[in-house]
Specification:
The complex is a heterodimer.
Chain A (H helix, E strand, L loop, with lengths): L3 E12 L2 E12 L3 E5 L6 H8 L7 E6 L2 E2 L5 H4 L2 E4 L11 H10 L5 H14 L15 H13 L5 E5 L7 H16 L3 E6 L2 H7 L2 E6 L2 E6 L1 H6 L5 E7 L4 H8 L4 E7 L2 E6 L5 H11 L4 E7 L3 H9 L6
Parallel strand pairs in A: 3-8, 3-9, 6-7, 7-8
Antiparallel strand pairs in A: 1-2, 1-4, 4-5, 9-10, 11-13, 11-14, 12-13
Helix pairs in contact in A: 3-4, 3-5, 4-5, 5-6
Chain B lengths: L1 H14 L1 H30 L4 E7 L6 H10 L7 E6 L1 H9 L5 E6 L2 E6 L5 H25 L6 H12 L19 H13 L1 H10 L7 H8 L4 H30 L8 H24 L5 H18 L7 H8 L1 H6 L1 H14 L4 H25 L8
Parallel strand pairs in B: 1-2, 1-3
Antiparallel strand pairs in B: 3-4
Helix pairs in contact in B: 1-10, 2-7, 2-10, 7-11, 7-12, 7-15, 8-10, 8-11, 10-11, 11-12, 11-15, 11-16, 15-16
The chains are: A alpha/beta, B alpha/beta.
């Protein structure tokens, strides 16, 4: 693992009586795609804004590349790129001009800037739309322009705050592939989202946040190991007798069974071929069933088990 | 870096349809409306055209005195009437064809006037003038007939004496400027255009503060120094209203041919300072954190229109009434100070009053600019 790119120690941020960040700690290493996962209002964006010195905080120490981050740390800011939740472009400037404008806030040399702008536009696949004004772009293309504006100056550390909100699946995949590509090109990524699938898909390490606190962190696999559930089997079945439910509960590795609205859910905490075993039992009882599918645990299950509520609550 | 910021900020302002309309198009349209409304009024009142008149002599009476009188009226110096000597029939045709305003018929050396019915105010004035001229001739002739003067030469000398009006009062011009009170409207229009710069000031602040816009947030996070960002955006924000004012002045002076009085370069210089104060007002209101973003636009619209109104945009002379009742208001109202500066350029031969006005505007700008800078310089916020 590389050197620390971001270290946050005992960060406290209050909005009057509300504690937005409660003695929050964070350590992000070079080359990571670090995911900050949590429900809305958990403190993800506040954490990001404090790290970037955009928000004042009450207590704590924040270091980026080993140096204390302050509002006037212009040298540090040169190596940081930010893609915000809200699209931050000018409606009166074309795609090219927008990228050129924001790149120009970091890169003074015209020739270098021109090259970087072209590369950024190419990276987000907007070459055909260079002369378009943002109003003429679809939501997905607009998000891509937003990303191009944030990364055109080739930063070493990139913050992406929910960049795929309100984006169609195809554009979302393009964006996620782009983020992985940026990481492969050497950038350390901090990615905040409340879409657990995205975080699981691209992040090398994940922190789950709630109420301004670090609930847990690790790789997706490590987080899933923290919980009991290893598999959940769903079976659509009509009029399931209680006696059969009791028999299912007695199967090996089953720790919980739910039956409601003609849907049977069987929760396992280990074991192999669990689906075959439960279907065998139903056949022996001469019960016919509809759709059957198996689900592996998600980060939502991790969050649910740790906090007692769902990520999307 | 400064030029990069300046260039793009100027592009965003010029391409903004709202700014383009209010700061550039609206003053031009209003100026055209003023011109349409006031121009006909002043030309009909002030422009004098030589009155064409036909003279018909019905008998062989002596026309020596009358011809001398007419000659004097139609001379290059006076050029009050232009005369066509003709017969009655042709004179009537000329009158019907509106080629003459009236017919003077001489019978026994006594002139009588014939007009055609008209509804044009300009023609009525011409008819009145002709009538006055003939009345004046008859009165003079009446005086002469009561004087025992038989020698024609002496008679002409008396006529000349009668026709020479003595100047008992010497007219001295206090100014070489244009004293047309309609100019107040145009000065207020220029002041209003300056004040509309406040919208550029507001969008400048919105684009700089992280708590007001996503673009502002991105700028705050960049590696460009805060002061450079502010200066680049500020100067670009001032440029557009300045350009709009210059275009407006060129339009008024060289296309509508309105005599604005004073040196045109100094008028333009005044609008430069005026535009800066307009932008500063927008900056200041925009930077006040306690005012909700939606309310700022309303406040600036009210401020710019009210200040223009109080400087005489809609009611000429309101500024002079305020000067009598509450003079401090005219000193605090930037639009009134701008109109004062333009007025003093037009009227006074010295620049004392002009410099005072420009100094007031400069001091106001510096104060508002400093206060605004103190509010927008920060890069870190308590909440976003």
């Amino acid at each position: 693992m590389g050197a620390s790119v971001i270290t946050v120690e005992n960060l406290v941020k209050r909005y009057k009586e509300l504690i937005a960040l409660d003695h929050f700690n964070l350590d992000i290493k070079e080359g990571e795609i670090f995911g900050l996962l949590g429900p809305n209002g958990s403190g993800k964006t506040t954490t990001m804004n404090c790290i970037l010195s955009l928000l004042k905080y009450d207590k704590g120490v924040i270091k980026i590349f080993g140096k204390e981050m302050k509002p006037d740390s212009y040298e540090l800011k040169k190596d940081i790129g930010v893609v915000m939740q809200n699209v931050a472009v000018f409606d009166e400037l074309t795609v090219y001009e927008n990228v050129d404008y924001f790149c120009g806030l970091y890169i003074k040399d015209k020739a270098t800037r021109k090259q970087y702008v072209e590369e950024a536009i190419q990276f987000v696949d907007l070459e055909k739309f260079k002369k378009f004004y943002p109003k003429k772009l679809s939501g997905g293309l607009l998000r891509r322009l937003n990303i191009a504006c944030g990364i055109a100056h080739k930063p070493k550390l990139i913050f992406l705050d929910e960049p795929t909100v309100a984006v169609d699946p195809q554009s979302r995949n393009n964006i996620l592939e782009g983020i992985v590509k940026l990481n492969k090109n050497g950038a350390t990524i901090v990615y905040t989202s409340h879409y657990m699938e995205e975080v699981e898909q691209i992040c090398t390490r994940i922190m789950i946040m709630d109420k301004g606190k670090n609930i847990t962190q690790g790789t997706a696999a490590e987080l899933k190991k923290m919980i009991r559930n290893t598999e959940t089997i769903h079976i659509e079945i009509l009029n399931l007798p209680d006696s059969v439910i009791e028999k299912i509960k007695e199967l090996t590795h089953v720790y919980k069974v739910e039956y409601a609205e003609n849907l049977l859910k069987v929760f396992y905490n280990g074991g192999k071929h669990n689906l075959i075993k439960v279907l065998d039992l139903l056949s022996k009882e001469d019960l016919s069933f509809g759709r059957v599918y198996s689900e592996l645990p998600t980060l939502n299950d991790v969050f649910l088990e740790i906090t007692g509520k769902e990520l999307r609550d | 870096m400064f030029l990069h910021l300046y260039k793009y900020r100027l592009k965003t302002i010029i391409r903004s349809k709202v700014d383009f309309f209010w700061v550039l198009l609206f003053p031009l349209l209003l100026g055209t409306c003023f011109y349409t409304a006031f121009h006909n009024l002043t030309t009909s009142l002030e422009e004098f055209k030589t009155i064409p008149v036909a003279i018909v002599c019905e008998d062989n009476s002596d026309l020596t005195f009358f011809k001398e009188y007419v000659k004097a009226l139609s001379s290059d110096e006076n050029n009050i009437i232009s005369v066509t000597y003709t017969n009655a029939g042709e004179a009537q045709t000329l009158l019907s064809d509106k080629k003459v305003t009236g017919i003077i018929t001489l019978k026994k050396s006594i002139p009588s006037l014939t007009f055609q019915d008209s509804d044009s105010s300009n023609k009525s004035i011409s008819q009145s003038i002709l009538k006055e001229l003939m009345d004046s001739y008859l009165q003079s002739m009446d005086i002469l007939s009561n004087v025992d003067v038989k020698d024609t030469g002496n008679m002409i000398a008396v006529i000349n004496h009668l026709s020479n009006n003595a100047d008992y009062i010497i007219e001295r011009k206090l100014t070489n400027g244009n004293t047309d009170y309609m100019l107040d409207y145009y000065y207020s229009l220029i002041a209003m255009t300056c004040m509309f710069g406040c919208y550029s000031g507001l969008s400048c602040v919105n684009g700089l503060k992280a708590d007001l816009s996503a673009q502002g947030m991105r700028k705050c996070l960049s590696s460009t120094k805060r002061l450079t960002l502010i200066l680049g955006d500020f100067f670009a924000s001032c440029t557009f209203p300045i350009l709009s004012n210059i275009i407006l002045i060129i339009y008024l002076k060289y296309i509508l041919k309105i005599n604005l009085g004073g040196n045109v370069l100094l008028i333009m210089a005044t609008t430069v300072v005026g535009s800066i104060i307009g932008v500063c007002v927008g900056l200041f209101v925009g930077a006040i954190p306690t005012i909700k973003p939606g309310a700022k636009n309303g406040i600036l619209t009210s401020l710019s229109l009210l200040s223009s109104f109080l400087s005489g945009l809609m009611v000429a002379g309101i500024k002079y009434k305020i000067e009598k009742v509450l003079p401090i208001l005219n000193k605090l109202n930037p639009a009134a100070v701008i109109t004062d500066a333009l007025y003093s350029l037009n009227i006074y031969d010295t620049y004392h009053q002009y410099i005072t006005c420009i100094s007031i505007l400069a001091v106001m700008s510096v104060i508002l600019c400093t206060l605004s800078y103190l509010m927008i310089r920060r890069e870190s916020y308590a909440s976003i």
